[in-house]
Specification:
This protein is α+β, with helices and mostly antiparallel strands. It has two domains: 1-101, Arc Repressor Mutant, subunit A, CATH 1.10.10; 102-258, no CATH class. It is 48% helix and 11% strand. It contains eleven helices and five strands, in the order αβββαββααααααααα. Strand 4 and strand 5 (81-86) form a beta hairpin.
């Protein structure tokens, strides 16, 4: 990454805020930050066990540069696309950042009104993907994880177009009829396409399934918080999430043809 001096350098507060999000993603197994020369955005990609690559986050290139300058991420190679990995100093910095906003409570989910678990590096989906049932089978298979990551990618891209604001996805789920979507926009790149894909997915899942998928996959809420919010019995949220991801996988295959990664 070529270090440059920007006229409007990002504030330390913005760097820390974005670093919390990106370093958490880089802490996941097989993750790296890809930075292409001349691009304004850098992307976090993660290679799954089946060799497929999914994008799990995006960040401004200047924020990525600031993280590299601070020694939180590093690369051993060079080329048109540089791939950065989290360094030990980055893990220490992430731990410090999380501890600053974590409250000393038995439920770390109370640190955020939406139940986001600041104290954990992995997303709720990734944590459930590592669990096994009584028969020794993984609780969430790779195809369900890919469906979750595809939704989160579109969700983050849609939020970028609103300056990080929130769409009223819950209201969209309650709408009886989905709006007519231009196929050229729906399958294309950019913010509008991502927003239309999230909207279509939420309306397909509907209230209930859509709520738990949106909160766990996109807002990174913990299962206990979701169960309390929805009034469900303990340990029932993960079952509903798995059903929701199965429906989401079916939706993506019907509307997009496959769950292949959006970038290489």
């Amino acid at each position: 990454m070529k270090h440059t001096k920007f006229e409007d350098t990002p504030s330390e507060e913005l760097i820390a805020s974005e670093a919390r999000r990106i370093l958490r993603r880089l802490s996941e197994p097989g993750a790296c930050l890809a930075v292409a020369q001349g691009m304004e955005k850098a992307v976090v990609v993660r290679e799954n066990k089946d060799g497929q690559t999914v994008r799990t986050g995006t960040v401004d290139a200047e924020i990525a540069e600031a993280m590299a300058l601070k020694g939180w991420i590093g690369t051993t190679g060079s080329g048109r696309v540089a791939r950065y990995h989290i360094k030990p100093s980055g893990r220490v910095a992430l731990k410090d950042m999380l501890s600053e906003i974590e409250v000393p409570a038995s439920e770390a989910e109370e640190a955020d009104p939406r139940g986001l678990r600041y104290g954990t590096v992995e997303s709720p989906v990734m944590m459930l993907a590592r669990r096994r049932d009584k028969n020794g089978e993984v609780f969430l298979t790779e195809d369900l994880v890919r469906a979750a990551e595809r939704l989160r990618e579109d969700f983050e891209l849609a939020r970028m177009g609103d300056g990080g604001g929130e769409q009223n996805w819950e209201e969209m789920m309650a709408q009886a009829d989905a709006p007519e979507l231009d196929p050229g926009v729906f399958h294309g790149p950019g913010v509008e396409a991502a927003r239309s894909r999230v909207q279509a997915a939420m309306q397909d899942l509907g209230p209930g399934l859509g709520d738990v998928v949106l909160r766990a996959c996109c807002h990174l809420e913990g299962m206990e918080s979701i169960e309390a919010r929805m009034g469900w019995a303990a340990r029932s949220g993960k079952i509903v999430l798995r059903i929701g991801l199965q429906r989401l996988k079916r939706h993506f295959k019907l509307t997009q043809g496959s769950l292949s990664p959006m970038i290489g």
